[in-house]
Amino acid sequence: MRFSILPTLANSELSIAQVRAAHQAELDAIARYCRLTNYLAAAQIYLKDNFLLKEPLKSEHIKDCLLGHWGTCPGINLIYVHLNCLIQHHDISLFLVAEAGHGTPAMLANLYLERSLQAFYPELTLDANGLATLIRGFSSRCGFLNHDYAGEELGYALAVAFGAVMDNPDLIVACVISDQEAETGATATAWDSYKLIDPAKSGAVLPILHLNGDKTIYAAMSDIELQQRFTGYGYQVRIVGSQKNQFDKDSATQNALDLNVDLYGSLDWAYREICRIQQAARLGQAITQPKFPLLIVRSPKDWTGIQEIDRASIKESHRSHQIPAKDVKTNPQQLQLLEDWLRSYKIEELFDQQGCPIREILNLCPQDKQRMGCHVHISGEGVYKPLNLPNIFDFAIPIQTKSCSHEEDQFSSTEQIGKYIKTVIEQNPQTFRIFCPDQLESSNLSALLEVNHHNDHGSIQSDDLQVSLRKERMLEFFSQHTCQGWLQGYLLTGRHGLFLSHEASLNSIISMMNQHARFLKLSKTLPWRSRSVGFAQSSVASLNYLAVSTPWQQEYSDFSQQSSSFINAVLTQKAEIVRVYLPPDANCLITTIAHCLNTTDQINLILTSADPMPQWLTMAEAIAHCRAGASIWHWASTDQGINPDVVLVGIGDRSTVEVMAAAHILREEIPALRVRVVNVTDLRVLEEDAENSQHLDKEMFEALFTRDRPVIINFHGTLAVLEQLFFGRPNSDRFQLNGDQGEVISSFAQNLRHGTSRFHLIIQAIRLVAPHNPSVAARATERVNYYKHILAERYRSSQKLGSDRAPPKWS
After folding, report:
1. Distance separating alpha carbons of residues 535 and 121, to the nearest angstrom
2. Is-contact 114 365, C-beta < 8 A?
3. DSSP codes, 430-476
4. pLDDT digits over 53-104, tens only?
5. Confidence of residue 219 (pLDDT cuts 50, 70, 90)
6. Each residue of 300-349: pLDDT tens digit?
7. Which of 35-39, 429-433, 521-525, 688-692 bottoms out in mean pLDDT, i.e. has the lowest?
8. With 60 as the cut, is the pLDDT of residue 148 above it?
9. Are 235 and 258 in contact (CB under 8 A)?
């Protein structure tokens, strides 16, 4: 690596005069670069013509709809160009992560200048035509540059940055956190992420807290408060831009110059601190509780923009946050203010006659793969590699009897999948991680605890905590937001992971899931992600959730874990993006996990239970069943399921146990009632969706569920999900739906209260079949009343004894 001539200063104040004297020419070029990017950002917000201001600004040059956020753009532009200089000074691998939305015009301006946009969109050339395409295209209804990835939850850019550097030892990710973003819970928990990063084996994140607000807590904090806050988090903090001079009009110009110089020296210092910590760790002399650098950059919100409109101050106010002048198309005074603003950048000094930026500015941009917008970890150039997956038959559970009456034939699906995932980790030691909110042991995944470098917080001494936290392949951290952010950063930089959680806890990250789904959906429409445009295809590993279901049992958390509504949220996304799997036993779970780990550009939700459960299918049968997504279990049906009176459907492992028990009792006690048993493991095959190539078409749907026979469905989730899935199917009134009704109740009453027990299913089947089958009708009254009595007895017994054990031997 190449180092600049700046000295390494420990905790003393950087000398602005010293930096300026050593690098005046480069600092002047940086100032001109910022003039240009600030102009480009403002022009994207306002202009649809006259992009080089070769004639007086007119109303027809202004966009009809003004969108975007101006206030944060100058600060981002300054940070971006200084990061470019850092890359070139030290020849390092670095890219920037910033929250989507607010700084988009600034990010696009910089990506345009460094030719990263042109690598993907050849029409964005560095001339008048490319400039027009860039400025006109931003936030235009027919433009190609819009806020497609914004609009959901803010705050997890920092967690994504930390996920990106895991197992990437040569990578530095700079993360710009806005003052608004810093107030979110997701960011609050992510500050501690560095404690789980091993500097010997992973890269580093450089957090840059950008304060330029007028109404946020962080912007209002004094320099001393900020220093204390982030020193308490464990960082080594430098504040760039003094708070005391921000409102001094007389020194505004000098403050801007000083900010430029201060940031130049501070970034160099931060890089050297990162190198010092990493070098010590990689030489076997790891620093105990190392203090990674953190920069706090204060920049004025009105910086270089309009200061006052109609006697209302824009300076340092909310009016500069989005669109400083909103009526420029109809108000001549505001139009003049806008023209004065745009011309203040003196763009005639920054472009040549062809509309290309001058060479002095372009020389500040790194070249080729060093460009942040074309970095190998974000452009998709050959980063993704499939996992080396073990043979699933090595983990198969032998099936002795297909019954739930023998406890010796019951296994915990999660215990078995833990053995499979342990082998996946061992065979992919640098490209696979598990992200888990502290639920490995409670989910019966004890096999994973045998993997080296698990961060077992309870078995380590406090002095060893920092070292132990950084060495795990399974990151246990109680914040769902942070785990999700880590995993997204890990996946988007070419690796693989698994998010393990209790099902109910996933509700807290619904908006993050939606945002990732939106990204995947949008990416499928981009031509450069589906064909070579100087880069390889940009697939990313699927985001896989393994949700251990708790709505149907109480293990340790009273009523706090009773929710299955994450399925509802997931199903709002298209089937090509999101799949939901409910494997009925361990072999099906192993098959499903292996399939999901081998997919790309999807979100997969897999639901299972931790308790010992009956096993139904051999591994070969499980593969065939999961490939179909839904199938008839011939061996559990009357006469292989031919010509049934009723179809019993199980969706979910616990729901399937009740279906199997009901089918067995009906075959034994009322043989005249012909039963077909169907199990569904891929929930989305039920949809009538022409765009879903894996759905059951009309012929296959009727082959599975018959054309006119009654169908009783026992479902793990809510009834609203089933109603959504069966919408549009003919004769929908013949479907009897049973599932989670959203009640928060004690576990021993779950099946009884929700109407999903085997006895409810038997009563439903008899009632539905009796009108069409005289043999069943002859016994219907006696049998229905008998099972009503059984239900009443079970309910009284469960309340008295507090037991939710399933009845023995199918009874």
Report:
1. 12
2. yes
3. TTEEEEESS-TTTTT-GGGGGSTT---GGGS-GGGHHHHHTT-SEEE
4. 999 999 999 998 888 888 889 999 999 999 999 999 999 999 999 876 578 8
5. confident
6. 877 887 777 765 555 655 566 678 878 888 899 989 999 999 999 999 99
7. 688-692
8. no
9. no
**% of the chain at pLDDT higher than 90:** 57
Asked if residues 648 and 710 have their Cβ atoms less than 8 Å apart, the reply is no
Q: Give the H or E element holding residue 580.
A: strand 578-581
Which tokens hold the place of 379?
């452009």
DSSP assignment of 755-782, as one string? T-SHHHHHHHHHHHHTTT-HHHHHHHHH
- What SS3 class is residue 413? helix
- DSSP string covering 288-347: SS---EEEEEE--TTTTS--EETTEE-TTSGGGTS-S-S-TTT-HHHHHHHHHHHHTT-G
- CA dist 277 and 275 (Å) reads 6
What is the mean predicted confidence (pLDDT) over 117-122?
90
Helix, strand or coil, per DSSP, at residue 411: strand
DSSP state for residue 352 in the 8-state scheme: -
**Spatial CA neighbour of 162 closest among 179, 177, 147, 178:** 177
Residue type at 325 in one-letter notation: A
pTM for the model: 0.91
- The torsion region of residue 656 among left (phi > 0), alpha (psi -120 to 50) and beta comes to alpha
| H helix count then E strand count, the chain | 27, 20
In sequence order, what are the residues at sequence separation of 6 or more whose Cβ sits closer than 8 angstroms to the Cβ of residue 348? none
Residues with Cβ within 8 Å of residue 724, at least 6 apart in sequence = 571
Please tell me the distance from the alpha carbon of residue 511 to that of residue 502, in angstroms, as a whole number: 17
Q: What is the DSSP string of 70-106?
A: -TTHHHHHHHHHHHHHHHHHHT-EEEEEE-TTTTHHH
Tokens of 319: 């009016």
Which residues, at least 6 apart from 278, have a Cβ–Cβ distance to it below 8 Å?
169, 199, 200, 204
- The string of DSSP codes covering 200-213 is TTS-EEEEEEEE--
- d(CA 34, CA 133) in angstroms, rounded, equals 21
CB contact at 8 A, 166 and 472: no
Chain mean pLDDT for the chain: 85
Q: How many CB atoms lie within 10 A of CB 17?
A: 10
